[in-house]
Specification:
InterPro entries: Asp/Glu/hydantoin_racemase (IPR015942), Asp/Glu_race (IPR001920), Asp/Glu_racemase_AS_2 (IPR033134), Asp_race (IPR004380). The protein is of the alpha/beta class. 48% of the residues lie in helices and 13% in strands. The protein starts with a strand and ends with a helix.
Length: 228
């Protein structure tokens, strides 16, 4: 099996759920404990978020590359970034990344294409919803990506940073989020923040949910086990 390198800490909750989901998916398939080895480099979440919010792109990219290099030094065979937002600069740094990397955007886009989706709503942190990296990634598969309006974006941002990143979930926030996604005539909804699956699951809505964390974890596990 290949050794997985996870660039984590962005956030605490996301990293925990990545580790748990990868190992849970393995057990669901094999019912044994020969889990793939996993290395985690946990970044400074506040520093990382400050670089995002202040649009310090050069420092942001350097910090990501430093973390990925650390995973290579530790012995990872390939890497993933356990968040959606750092994929905004993936195209800029892809040639400098020291190991093969699995993109969350590409993984989710392939899943959406397989399900026959044509138009999806992107939800996530402000940085992700204000960017265009999901739109670019999905355009290769002829899938349109739309985003909530500015007020709705702020509601989602507040839910994520006020609650989900510290593993807090409230019924009020769940209903607010459901009210937002139900306003849009789309084939599916991208949970484009890896904390959002804590808030709602498929059982909560008739909208088809694309759980970016679970999809990314499944692609990661498949890569780790491709010679098992």
């Amino acid at each position: 099996m290949k050794k997985i390198g996870i660039l984590g800490g962005i956030s605490l909750a996301s990293t925990i759920h990545y580790y748990k989901t990868i190992t849970d998916l393995y057990y669901e398939k094999y019912h044994d404990y020969y889990y793939p080895e996993i290395l985690i480099n946990s970044l400074n979440f506040q520093y990382f978020t400050d670089l995002e919010n202040q649009r310090k792109t050069e420092e942001y990219q350097s910090y990501i590359l430093e973390g990925l290099e650390n995973l290579k030094k530790a012995g990872a065979d390939f890497v993933i970034m356990a968040a959606n937002s750092p994929h905004s600069v993936l195209d800029n740094i892809i040639d400098e990344i020291p190991l093969p990397i699995i993109s969350i955007v590409e993984s989710v886009a392939k899943e959406a294409k397989q399900k026959g989706l044509k138009k999806v709503l992107l939800t996530g942190i402000l940085y992700t919803m204000q960017g265009d990296f999901y739109q670019k990634g999905f355009s290769k598969y002829d899938i349109d990506v739309v985003v909530p309006n500015d007020d709705e974006k702020q509601v989602i941002e507040n839910i994520i940073f006020g609650e989900l990143v510290i593993n807090k979930v409230s019924n009020k926030s769940r209903q607010q989020f459901l009210d937002i996604i139900n306003r849009y005539d789309v084939d599916g909804v991208i949970l484009g923040c890896t904390e959002l699956p804590q808030l709602i699951g498929q059982q909560d809505t008739n909208k088809l949910l694309l759980n970016s964390l679970r999809i990314h974890c499944q692609t990661t596990l498949d890569c780790a086990l491709d010679d098992k």
